[in-house]
Design brief:
Elements: H1 4-7, E1 16-21, E2 25-32, E3 35-44, H2 46-50, H3 53-68, E4 74-79, E5 82-83, E6 90-92, H4 104-112, E7 116-120, H5 121-132, E8 141-146, E9 150-156, E10 159-160, H6 190-194, H7 196-206, H8 221-245, E11 249-253, H9 264-274, E12 286-288, H10 295-310, H11 312-320
Parallel strand pairs: 1-4, 4-7, 8-11, 11-12
Antiparallel strand pairs: 1-2, 2-3, 5-6, 8-9, 9-10
Helix pairs in contact: 3-4, 5-10, 7-8, 8-9, 10-11
């Protein structure tokens, strides 16, 4: 069943190219009328760190359009960081610092000749899950995504809660107080203790492959204890966010939670025991993302429609040229 409000979310029916900019990989795909097309393309995010990031993205777009044979009417870029209220200026991307200070939408759009719209990656992914995934029949939905970094978003009456611009960027909230630091962040941020980058640090300390870290030999008690604490920190993060926004439904996703052997049942237990309503009569509606990273493809057309409504004149002038 689809709720009344979700049926009225604006969705563009034009072909949209989606760039999911992650801390490890950059994923490309197309969406048409809210449905993903079959084409996929993957690049390493290191390309943005080794060269001018906007020019590197422009070259990737050219490759994707040439290989797919589809020239989109718009491009939606999912950004892992703070975007200014102008929907263009990257204030802070902790895991891709080369993007900081760039007007990514304007600069990339000029290079490729196509309007480029920016959205926080967590907002875009949660929009996709609300429109066509795990939370399709739900309102007041909190989404938290544990990847290279940690992102979160909240949908209320079909609209993302933004606060003054970047609400629920919980990956950079103060946390724990043990003095640990990740490059690109201030000391003691949540990402330092509960993100994919934190997990990579654990893998390096114990000289195990990160892909199989949750399947590693459990005879190493220190590693077992550190992974248990890592999962507990993730549960704390969910509890904090839930206390702030009081969601009816919580959707969890991201590459860390999709890893082989990740203890989802244990994470669920910890979230329930640490939630603000623990011991109350109200149960927690906790769901796992249905579409993985492909959720951004389901959500992208809605972003195009929303941005067109908010910036209609600028959008049309980009396509047709300024009115004389």
């Amino acid at each position: 069943m689809t709720s009344t409000w979700s049926r009225h979310l604006p969705v563009s029916d034009e072909p949209v190219l989606v760039i999911d900019i992650g801390g490890t990989n950059i994923k490309f795909g197309y969406s048409l009328a809210g449905r993903p097309l079959a084409f996929r393309k993957l690049f390493s995010t290191d390309a943005l760190r080794a060269d001018d990031p906007v020019q590197a993205l422009a070259r990737m777009v050219e490759v994707v359009i040439a290989e797919s044979g589809v020239r989109p009417q718009a491009i939606v870029a999912a950004v892992p960081g703070f975007i200014d209220t102008d929907d263009d200026h990257i204030l802070h991307a902790a895991n891709i610092m080369s993007l900081n200070g760039r007007r990514l939408g304007t600069e990339l759009g000029r290079l490729v000749g196509i309007p480029v719209l920016l959205e926080r990656d967590a907002v875009l992914a949660l929009t996709g899950e609300v429109l066509a995934g795990a939370a399709q029949d739900k309102d007041h939905v909190l989404g938290i995504f544990f990847g290279t970094g940690i992102g979160a978003a909240f949908m209320d009456d079909g609209k993302p809660f933004r606060g003054a611009g970047w609400a629920l960027e919980i990956g950079l909230m103060p946390f724990c107080g043990q003095g640990q630091v990740l490059e690109g962040t201030c000391p003691d941020r949540l990402e330092t203790y509960a993100s994919g980058r934190a997990l990579q640090g654990i893998a390096e300390r114990y000289r195990v492959a990160i892909d199989g870290i949750f399947r590693a030999d459990n005879s190493n008690r220190r590693l077992v204890d550190e992974l248990a604490l890592f999962v507990r920190y993730q549960a704390f993060a969910v509890g904090v966010a839930a206390a702030i926004v009081s969601p009816a439904t919580i959707v969890l996703g991201g590459g860390v939670l999709d890893m082989d052997g990740f203890p989802r049942d244990r994470l669920r237990e910890l979230i329930v025991s640490h939630s603000p309503v623990a011991g109350a009569s109200r149960a927690i509606d906790l769901r796992w993302c249905q579409h993985g990273w492909l959720a951004v493809l389901h959500g992208a057309p809605s972003v195009v429609a929303e941005h067109r409504n908010r910036h209609a004149q600028a959008f049309e002038e980009f396509k047709t040229g300024p009115a004389r």
